[in-house]
Amino acid sequence: MTEFDLIKKPWERLLELVEAGDSTQLLDFLNSINPMDTALAISRLRMEEQGRLFSMLNPVDAAEVIEDISDTQAADLIEELSPEQAAAILGELDSDHVADLLGELDDEDAQAIIDEMDPEEAEEARQFLEYPADTAGGLMISEYLDYLADQKIHDVHVDLQANRQEYVDYHVQYLYVTDQEGRLCGVLRMHDLLFLNHASLLQQVMISTPLKVTVDATLEDLRNFFEEHDLFGVPVVDADNRLVGVVLPEAVEEARRKRSVHQFLGFSGIVGGEEFRSMPLLQRSGRRLSWLSLNIVLNIIAASVIALYQDTLSAVIALAVFLPMVSDMSGCSGNQAVAVSMRELSLGLVRPNELARVLAKEAGIGLLNGLVLGLMLGAAAWFWKGNPFLGLVVGGALALNTFVAVSFGGLIPLALKRMKLDPALVSSPLLTTVTDMCGFFFVLSFASLMLERL
Fold first, then answer.
1. How does strand 234-237 pair with strand 213-214?
2. Which of 222, 363, 401, 419 is the most exposed, having the fewest neighbouring CB atoms within 10 Å of its CB?
């Protein structure tokens, strides 16, 4: 590459090579830049240019490019390829990555690609898609080595030598020992394979009580497992103790990172997965409007409370200053309770059915914090207008609304989890509506009762 090429923006050079149709230089260029620049350069190409890019690469090289970009970007690219092209590329990826990408696609597109895959790989992909993404079944890989308990170490050596080209990309740190039905019997360390008598049967030298997890082990279960056990991987078994895969610690960390991103996007109002500015306008608009439309409906509901008390608000204009303060402060208190519940749910420290326990814990802090905040705001209102009854109205409303917000905020994530909804996505608008509606109601109803003294 010339000095001129080096200073050019990577997407400009990439476009030049795509337009020139030079596959060799294109591959050399992609190999010369880091993954972040690869993702950046590809994102700046138009959809048809991206299609031409992948048509110039063989499946192996295309798969390497796919590994350098996010699953969302990769899924968008794969959707534009023919099912035959997509199947050929996915056939070069690890099984867990294949499952992740297929999970990002529409059911129809995913099925069309699976139909073009090798029958054995297609069956494996269907099996992986049956498991929730954040479980051991959804995170495991099928690239592992297992042998029968009655085989000898010599047999393993022969197999490894005969299939070394296939196994070279496997994450081989342990060998797994199974019976005739595929049930996990033990684990063999590479050290044992190298130094024990070649005539020994695997069942004689294996670790007969291997550590393992089930396919339904949660992300937090896996995280706790790897924190307790410093292993390179853990075998995954089904309900019948049959070995079905292996989970690697890096897969767990990547899944935790994706969950954090998903929760951040949910709290920020981006629904339907990650959003990039390279995506089509209508797709991005739809994802944002799905959240904003819900919020405008909920805000209309909250604002309707003000409409019921507009005469009171007109008579005491000072209340307009305190309405947003009451709803905002209560909302902040409620969001603290939401955050604690979300965190405890993710760590497995609370279960979705423990509503009474969480309510009891949050009611106390809601009452105490509500009284403190209510006294502070009430004193400020009294000092400002010289009217103790105004202070009593806004202070009492804030105290009561804080109690409601904290209690409700602690329960929302648990209730949503029980209803199979995403707490990260729905908790915020629900809490905002409740705190606004209740805050407006408490301030204006208390003011109506004391209107003659205000």
1. parallel
2. 419
Strands 213-214 and 184-189: unpaired
**Is the CATH code 3.10.580.10 the one for domain 146-257?**
yes
Residue ranges per structural domain of the chain: 3-131, 146-257, 281-453
pTM confidence score? 0.60
Please tell me whether residue 107 adopts helix, strand or coil conformation.
helix
Instruction: Write the DSSP assignment of 129-152 as a string of letters.
Output: HTS-TTBHHHH-BS---EEETT-B
Between CA 297 and CA 104 the distance in angstroms is 29
Structure letter (DSSP) for residue 439: H
Rounded distance between C-alpha atoms, residue 361 and residue 129, angstroms: 39
pLDDT (tens digit, 9 = 90+) per residue, 31-78?
Answer: 888 888 888 888 888 888 888 888 899 998 989 888 888 887 888 888
CA dist., res. 252 & res. 223, Å (int): 7
Q: How far is CA 34 from CA 15, 38, 141, in A?
A: 17, 6, 26
How many angstroms separate the CA atoms of 108 and 112, rounded?
6
Residue 28 has pLDDT above 50, yes or no: yes
What CA–CA distance (Å, rounded) separates 157 from 198? 9
CATH top class, domain 281-453: mainly alpha
Count of beta carbons in the 10 Å neighbourhood of residue 355: 15
Residue range 244-288, pLDDT digits in tens: 999 999 989 988 887 776 666 665 556 566 666 666 777 777 777
Q: Report d(CA 19, CA 421) in Å as an integer.
A: 46
